[in-house]
Amino acid sequence: MSSHQSPPNPGQRRTLRKSGGEYLTPFQRKRLQKNLQEDLPPKYRQRLQIMLLADEGKTQAQICQALNCSPITARHWMLIARSGEAHNWQSHPIGRPKAVNDEYLQRLQELVSQSPRDIGYSFRNWTAQKLSQHLATEFGIEVSDRHINRLLKKMGLSTRPKPPQPDIPTHPEEDSDKRIVISNLPPSHTPETQDVWQFNPIKMS
User: Fold this and answer.
1) Would you list the domain boundaries of the chain?
2) Confidence (pTM)
3) Is 10 helix (H, G, I), strand (E, B) or coil?
4) Residue 78: is it exposed, middle or buried by C-beta count within 10 angstroms (0-12/13-18/19+)?
């Protein structure tokens, strides 16, 4: 009998999972554990760890805490394990593309316009570093913090909180009425020069 063992088909996976973990077959789990012992880039190692932890029944939050990864990264590789595609952990090569595309810029604009908490993060405000890390997970594009700030500036955006707006008078018509009262005095209160001379006549002998 040959020592080479081929991956089980989908029907076999369902049977094997009953006696194994949550998502992986015994064959898949063994292969991932073996790959994990090799000298791998940190991103690849993280992918394997996420799938193995998910197979042990760990939740997304527990995986994020254990591996210090983003919820999106954990959710993506948990889905890969759940769909029976764990053997494709190298199908998303890690590398820096030549340029940032329009889809990347659109996503950057969307992220800045919403709170990080809306997509599962615990912090309240974005920084260039956090945006860079998040987009690297989604697109595989490694961009420096400085370049993120340059891209935001070109779009007229910033990660800095907006300064508070000055108070606007709630009743501007009241100020207008006051100016009218002050500037439009009745004519009777303004003495004319002719009346003053007539009030003090000087009689010459």
Assistant:
1) 10-88, 102-154
2) 0.41
3) helix
4) buried
